[in-house]
Structure formats: structure tokens, C-alpha cells
Design goal:
heterodimer, A: 111 residues, mainly beta, 6-stranded mixed beta sheet, 12 strands, B: 116 residues, globular
Chain lengths: 111, 116
């Protein structure tokens, strides 16, 4: 079945470091891809999305490009802040279904 | 942007009682709503999917008689945990989707349930 695999965390970085969180997927057809962020004790917030191959989603300095050839949607940010500390979920969507989530990657940024 | 609210945000109850959690889409009509359960430091586990006016579709292993879901309107869904037990203690998150287009789901802030 369809699935999403994220890199194991936690990821620990210093402020202003470069961030990459890897995400790969397995799916038939042409899914849409998402990154959600969850701050402690809260629900999930949509961070960015891409609906077709080669699309780049971006928001708040985060970017991810939908790569069909490598079935990947890696999340990147050039300079992380302490406030970016959270759990990040990669997810895919196919019509008529609920989102399928990866296991989440915890990011911890220290000053 | 699209906002989903949940109420209550925290609930503590005695074992054997029932608890109702409300999920509302505040600025859009949600044709489909989803209920998830999340254990500490884990991903979200989909419990059920509901379409307005229809019976909910439950995921395998989720007891439909224990977790009653009602989606009576395009802006409101409720989850009732019946005869709650300590093992039902968890973080419950609802999500709403306006249509089947890009599939974007908007999430509520979650409800933390503690059953004593």
C-alpha cells in the first residue's frame, strides 16, 4: 500500500544552521505531498504542499520540491531558528482518501 | 486561512463515563472530517472518516460502538468516547477537508483526554 518514510529523529541543530529532513514515498498514481508541523501540545499546521511533479512548496523559509524520479519531498530551510523546534510530518494524499503520514521527525534548535 | 476548532482542549473524567469532543470548521464547509488519535511521541493514527450526513467509516481495529462519530452538519463533527477507560487516555485530533481537490486537511488544536 501507499506509505511515507521520514528520516529518524531527533534532529538537533544550532540556530542559523541548514536544515534537511528527508521524506520519501511509495504510491501508485500521482499523489499530492504535504509537510505539516506540530508544536508541543498543539494540533498540526499545514506548512507547505505540492500537487504535482517538480512543484516546489514554500512557506516561512521552508521549501520542498516534489521529485517524482526519486519519489522524494525533502524539507529544507536555510537558517533555522529556535522557534522552529517542533515535530515535522510528511504526508501524501490521493483522491478520496485521508492523508497518509510519516512517523514524524522531531527538530530541536538551540541558541 | 481555514480554521478548525476543538472543544474541550482538556478533559479529565472517571472510568466508565462518556466524553464528547466537538470539532468545528469555522470559516469553511467541511465535506469530510477525520478523527485521529496520537500517542506520545508518535504519529497520528486515523480512527475514522466521516462525510456530512453519512455514517462514519472506521479504520480497522477501531471500535465503532466505543468511538461514536456524528457529522450532522458541514461545520460540526463530534466524537463521543463511550464508557471511557484509562487506556482511552490520549490526544485526539480532528481534521476537516473542504473538498477532494488537493486534499488539504486542516487540523484542530487537539483534545487531551485523561481517564482516571
Amino acid at each position: 500500500g501507499d506509505s511515507v518514510t521520514q528520516m529518524e529523529g531527533p534532529v538537533t541543530l544550532s540556530e542559523e544552521a541548514f536544515l534537511t529532513i528527508n521524506c520519501t514515498y511509495t504510491a501508485t498514481g500521482y499523489p499530492s505531498l504535504f509537510w505539516y508541523v506540530q508544536y508541543p501540545g498543539e494540533g498540526l499546521q499545514l506548512l507547505l504542499k505540492a500537487t504535482k511533479a517538480d512543484d516546489k512548496g514554500s512557506n516561512k523559509g521552508f521549501e520542498a520540491t516534489y521529485r517524482k524520479e526519486t519519489t522524494s519531498f525533502h524539507l529544507e530551510k536555510g537558517s533555522v531558528q529556535v522557534s522552529d523546534s517542533a515535530v515535522y510530518f510528511c504526508a501524501l494524499y490521493k483522491a478520496g482518501t485521508a492523508l497518509i503520514f510519516g512517523k514524524g521527525t522531531t527538530l530541536s534548535v538551540s541558541s | 486561512g481555514a480554521v478548525v476548532s476543538q472543544h474541550p482542549s482538556w478533559v479529565i473524567c472517571k472510568s466508565g463515563t462518556s466524553v464528547k469532543i466537538e470539532c468545528r470548521s469555522l470559516d469553511f464547509q467541511a465535506t469530510t472530517m477525520f478523527w485521529y488519535r496520537q500517542f506520545p511521541k508518535q504519529s497520528l493514527m486515523l480512527m475514522a472518516t466521516s462525510n456530512e450526513g453519512s455514517k462514519a467509516t472506521y479504520e480497522q481495529g477501531v471500535e465503532k460502538d466505543k468511538f461514536l462519530i456524528n457529522h450532522a452538519s458541514l461545520t460540526l463533527s463530534t466524537l463521543t468516547v463511550t464508557s471511557a477507560h484509562p487506556e482511552d487516555s490520549s490526544f485526539y485530533i480532528c481534521s476537516a477537508r473542504a473538498g477532494t481537490g488537493s486534499g488539504t486537511q486542516y487540523f484542530g488544536p487537539g483534545t487531551r483526554l485523561l481517564v482516571l
